[in-house]
Amino acid sequence: MKTNRIILSVLVLLFILPAVSVSGQTAGDYYTIRGTVRDAKDNKPLPHASVFVSGTYIGTVANSNGYFSLRVRKSENLETFRISYLGYAPRELSFEDYAGKESDFLMRVHSLPLQEVIIRPINARELVLNALDKVEENYPQEEYMLTGFYRESIKQRNDYISIAEAVVDIRKESYRTYSRNDQVQLIKGRKSADVKKADTLLVKLQGGPQVALLVDFIKNTDMVISSETIDWYDYELVDLAVIDGKTHYVIGFTPRVILPFPLFMGNIYIENESLAITMADFSRDLSDKKKASKQFIQKKPPRLRFTPTYTRYQVRFQEIDGKYYLSYVRGDVEFFADWRRKLFRTRYALMFEMAIMDRDNKELRSFARKETFRNRSILADLVSEYFTDDFWGGYNIIEPEIDIEEAVKKLNQKISESE
User: N or C: at which end does the chain have fewer Cβ atoms within 10 angstroms?
Assistant: First the structure.
């Protein structure tokens, strides 16, 4: 079985699609919570913390600076929201206390008394296998709808050359082994292209939110670790950790066989009682550069050399009513590109992330084929350059990081000067 339709066959060079317009909704009457999640001891920001409304599917994720905003319609009559972060005690907070102002949310490290842990025979491989055997028990077995916020960016050296982001609807298939691919539909999107003029090489991300969903390797069983690929890796219990107040085994895995395509290495987090895999953090084995490069390029000029130097992928799940739902995915890829017989080479960094902002288990909707985002679609070619303060209306989003904000300001200046 070949595992490598995987995560980032998304890089495309010199590949263009026609642009289309995407419409969205206006803002409603909502409460807004804003602030930065920080360590209570040293005041450092905690990147990518989970923020969600207790008892609902509504949520968001803090950016790399720990900053977030959360919008909730007043008509929902909701009372509290929750912040969680790996290794910290979760906090339950009141909308009444924090709505309409900006705050710092201090998180305290969660101590781990050994008596909290159910003692199991710690055979790391068997633990992973048991977790995979419990997929049907721990993950939803019915189709459901998601609303997500997706962002992708491309840097050339230290300058952004492309940023694109969108609100998407997702028809998420069940976690049964025979399920079909998840479907994605664009709801509202925008881009900033050529924030700083690129040089001779055009680089675009192919696949966008459709490919980001492939990081969910629990559903996509031909990726990373599955019951069929479990013997491709060695496993080791490397730590115990607390996620959202629950004890987890941290299992490290590394390749144990050599295959025609590169494997992965990293950590998976298995909840102590349910044996659900609630989080994973992993990267590709790039030790064979030639073999690794074939996994990323879809199309390139013949004289171009491509050398991947770094990859990292993350996936997280959130427990709701005893089932674990996809909540966040992220991918980072760095590489050098250079032309044969030329002295200098150029460094590129690509990033995509998607946070699930809402879920609906009741009303399934089918997407017409022409409305469905495809694996070969390029988000930056499907949305318009359009930036206003209220662009997203009532949708929850991932707040931009400081350097992305600066890049967008540069684009806005260009647009203003040209009018």
Answer: C
Give the predicted TM-score (pTM) of the model. 0.86
* Residue 190: both structure tokens together: 């925008």
As to burial, measured by CB atoms within 10 angstroms (0-12 exposed, 13-18 middle, 19+ buried), residue 287 is: exposed
Helix (H, G, I), strand (E, B) or coil at 380: helix
Across 3-7, 13-17, 64-68, least confident range = 13-17
CB 192 within 8 A of CB 387: yes
**Domains within the chain, CATH numbers bracketed:** 11-23+118-418 (no CATH), 30-107 (2.60.40.1120)
Quick: pLDDT tens for 135-178: 999 999 888 899 999 999 988 888 888 889 999 999 998 887 55
3-state secondary structure 340-377: CCCCCCEEEEEEEEEEEEEEECCCCCCCCHHHECCCCC
- Determine the Cα–Cα distance for residues 211 and 223; give it in Å rounded to an integer: 12
